[in-house]
Amino acid sequence: MADETLINKIHELSDLELAALICLVAKEHCIIDTEPVVIDELVQELELVFSNLSFASPVSSLTLEQIAAKVFGLSYAVVDCSEHTSLDDFAHAILTVEGSPTRSNSPVRTRQDSYFLNTPAFQSISRSPVSETFADNKTIPNVIIAKNLDEAPKQVQIQALELMRTKRIYTRTSVQNAPKRFLFIALLAGGDGPRLTKHLNDHMFISHFHDPEDGFPNLEEMFDDTGSISSVVKKSPRLNTEFMTSPRVSATEIEQLVQLSEQATVSIEVKAYQQNIIAFLRVHRAVASGISAPATVLFDKLAKCLAPLHNLSYATPSLIDLAARKIYPHRIQIVKPENERSMQWGSDLDAVAELLEGTTTEDVIEDVLGSSGAETPL
């Protein structure tokens, strides 16, 4: 069981911070979805979640209490993907350069800055995308935020999958390894069901939709009473040494949650309930292509990761329900009316189309978890 101080910290986290914590505990990667109109604000919010410093006022007036580490205190890089993004662009965006004297001398924005594609680059198909002129002191940050990854070409998405699976990226002169704590976030805007390439989509651990009405708490802290953004302190080695404090959720606490999740148990009755949910999803008339086996493995893993966050040493039916709502939304594909199962037995196409109209992945999951789906154990 986690100590009460850690549990209180977890209860104070926002939905985005909690999603990130779950992935760090599981050592997996995620999809975060939102409305298209607020995706830029969501990028800024995530930057503040992972940044090492909290910015509230100009550096000259900051006190030690005002400058505090954010939630996780991890290095990060942001890449803005589009149909013109090449492997060169992708690799340059995620490799940060340590000790770069000025931003103008660096081909990428470092750690606390975002990389945004300005001009289309040639479409490279090489596995070694980084140019020889790129600095030798480059590293992969702890967190990569890939904005609009679904719009990137297939080869870029395959490169992202390779990075997640092997935790390394190849340059022309070396192989760069990701740090021990490594999180890849695919930031998408608007849509339902799978939007990434098949294998990349199935490799993603969870998907989370951030409702704009839930706000951006860290971003809002940067606004003063007049509504203008306060001055932002840029990260530098001297500033870190003098001012930086511990993150709200430390690496030690994350490791404690990892150990507790590995020790979490699932009773036979709850396991049967979990398997029934999977079976109901696979035979649901609105689901196309079924439910993959890797998703089942991740389903079980998430249920155990959620237990210590709720100060439990075992998974409950309610945690199984919560896990299903995070594991399957990006994996379920709604069937086309002409391919719906009952069409084999002479159903009317118009009637089937009317039945399926407006059906979303969330509707399917709630249907399976509801009274007409798997029976919840008492």
Automatic annotation (TrEMBL):
Q: Which Pfam families match?
A: AAA_lid_2 (PF17863)
Q: Which Gene3D superfamilies match?
A: Magnesium chelatase subunit I, C-Terminal domain
Q: Which InterPro entries match?
A: ChlI/MoxR_AAA_lid, Nucleic_acid_metab_PIN/TRAM
**What GO annotations for molecular function exist for this entry?**
magnesium chelatase activity
Positions the record marks as coiled coil are none
Q: In which pathway does it act?
A: Porphyrin-containing compound metabolism
What are the ChlI/MoxR AAA lid domain coordinates in residue numbering?
281-341
User: Under which EC number(s) is this enzyme classified?
Assistant: 6.6.1.1
Name of the protein: magnesium chelatase
Q: Which organism is it from?
A: Cudoniella acicularis
